[in-house]
Design goal:
Length: 467
């Protein structure tokens, strides 16, 4: 099959990079070139800013209701193209088609439907005083930069685009250079839905080049970034001195805590799925499983067996597979035992079978650094206090899950975890109204529901004295 030639979506047209340079997009399933994409830089950012500047004012002049209708039209267009989007996402990421279709693409459509409805439900924000009324309004920021990673490419990009558009902004998106395909097709769907192309500009290329230039451009007044902590640090260092609004969704090293009253058979699938969905390449994945010492003998063999039977695809790239394999070697050096997995298999592509590591200290590098692949470390604990210390014992604080027969006990434990979010007896169960984000080195800020509307707007108060 011929490969796809991705081009930058700028205003109503598509362009190669000003540099004329291109990058190969390698498919994880078999290591072949599935597409080529522009290697953009600051010159392309300048073009996108002009297109965004031209489109934003008339979009901002529409009412919230009219913009919400635009989001619904886009959702309709995406729904009609859902299978095609799933095919492209599976091709670019290697994930099974049904995961791409029902985890990724369903959520992309839901992102637009949710924010359209949520926008319509917004009541006027009035604060009465005895002699005056405060009118809080939410003005658009103008042009916002959206930078997204390769693990849930369109799912995470649309999570940002929907509220940014609802609040009257124009966006310049920079998807990961490893997964350009669905962002490219999405840019076409935006135009097919009748929205002005200048509202959703999509630039492709390397992060340190076009991504950095996007963060640096003075007309881009807010940046919503999702990616690794190390990159988030660079983005923050660039944006902070320019006083740009910044939302950082970064890495995680999330704990999955099995309490001593859990029914192993009842929780097993949830614990395995949270560790290995998307080949463990979701920042919310539970990569550390904490089990009472008294239950370990009963738990571990059933856990390993269930992991061996959990279907996963390849990891995103040869380089990432080598990184994950490096951590498995380090695990052994740190005194751990690889109970299963870490096998490449005999096929082509960047496959790596799901791995379980036991016997590691909870403070070892493998148990505290983000691996972001199909690797879970298992740790025994004696008391709830010890479990909490282990769970909170990394520099990350994104998410976690607690598995128990007593939901109220689970909720109390979850409250004490130093994370931005936690699940009890479930995982990745998402109400889009709630805040999403991390603490410590997992990020700054929250998105979701009102938090997204707040981030993608400037709240302004008008105090009017009574006549
Ligand atoms: O991240 P990278 P990746 C995290 C996950 C993992 C990482 C994987 O934990 O650590 O993301 O994604 C662009 N200036 N999350 O490897 O390298 C780059 O081109 C501007 C957490 O892609 O950080 C890509 O588009 N941009 C998350 C994007 O940044 C730059 C959920 C991310 O790249 C840049 C998903 C620069 N200097 C993954 N350098 C969560 N918390 O929700 C790179 N980029």
């Amino acid at each position: 099959m011929g490969h796809i030639d991705v081009r930058n979506a700028i205003g109503s047209s598509y362009h190669d990079a000003v540099s004329g340079l291109r990058i190969d997009d390698i498919g994880p399933l078999d290591g072949t070139v599935v597409a080529t994409l522009p290697r953009s830089d600051a010159a392309d950012v300048a073009r996108a800013v002009e297109a965004a500047r031209a489109a934003q004012p008339s979009w901002a002049a529409l009412s919230l209701f009219e913009r919400a209708n635009g989001l619904d039209r886009l959702a309709d267009t995406m729904e009609a193209a859902a299978d095609e989007l799933a095919h492209l996402e599976a091709l670019d990421t290697g994930k099974p088609w049904d995961v791409a279709r029902h985890v990724d693409i369903d959520r992309c459509i839901r992102n637009f439907r949710f924010f359209a409805a949520f926008g319509r439900d917004q009541a006027p924000e009035l604060f009465r005083m005895d002699d005056a009324t405060n009118h809080v309004i939410r003005k658009p920021i103008g042009i916002v930069g959206l930078i997204s990673p390769w693990n849930l490419p369109l799912y995470l990009l649309t999570w940002k685009v929907a509220p940014a558009l609802l609040m009257g902004n124009a966006v310049i998106a920079k998807p990961s250079e490893l997964t350009p395909l669905t962002a490219h097709r999405f840019s076409e769907l935006v135009r097919e839905a009748g929205l002005d192309g200048g509202l959703v500009n999509v630039l492709h290329g390397f992060g340190p080049e076009v991504g950095q230039a996007l963060v640096e451009h003075p007309a881009v007044e807010a940046i919503s970034f999702t990616g690794g902590t190390a990159t988030g640090r660079i983005v923050a260092a660039t944006a902070a001195p320019m006083f740009k609004k910044l939302s950082l969704e970064l890495g995680g090293k999330n704990a999955t805590v099995v309490l001593d009253d859990a029914d192993i058979d009842a929780v097993l699938h949830g614990v395995v799925r949270s560790g290995f969905l998307n080949s463990g390449q979701i920042c919310l994945c539970g990569s550390r499983v904490l089990v009472p010492s008294t239950m370990m003998a009963a738990f571990l063999p059933r856990f390993v067996d269930a992991v061996q039977r959990f279907p996963i695809g390849p990891v995103i790239s040869e380089a990432h597979r080598s990184k994950v394999e490096g951590y498995l070697q380090l695990a052994v050096e740190e005194g751990g035992t690889v109970l299963t997995g870490g096998e490449r298999g005999d096929g082509t592509g960047f496959h790596l079978s799901p791995a379980v590591v036991a016997g590691l200290s909870p403070t070892s590098r493998c148990a505290t650094e983000e691996i972001f692949g199909p690797v879970v470390t298992v740790h025994p604990y004696s008391t709830e206090e010890e479990a909490l210390d282990i769970a909170n014992g990394t520099e990350y604080g994104l998410a976690g899950s607690v598995w128990t027969s007593d939901a109220e006990r689970g909720r109390r434990f979850a409250e004490r975890m130093d994370t931005g979010m936690a699940w009890v007896n479930t995982w990745l169960h998402r109400d889009l109204r709630v805040p999403f984000g991390g603490v410590k080195q997992s990020g700054v800020g929250r998105e979701g529901g009102m938090w997204s509307l707040g981030f993608f707007s400037e709240a302004v108060n008008i105090c009017v004295a009574d006549d």
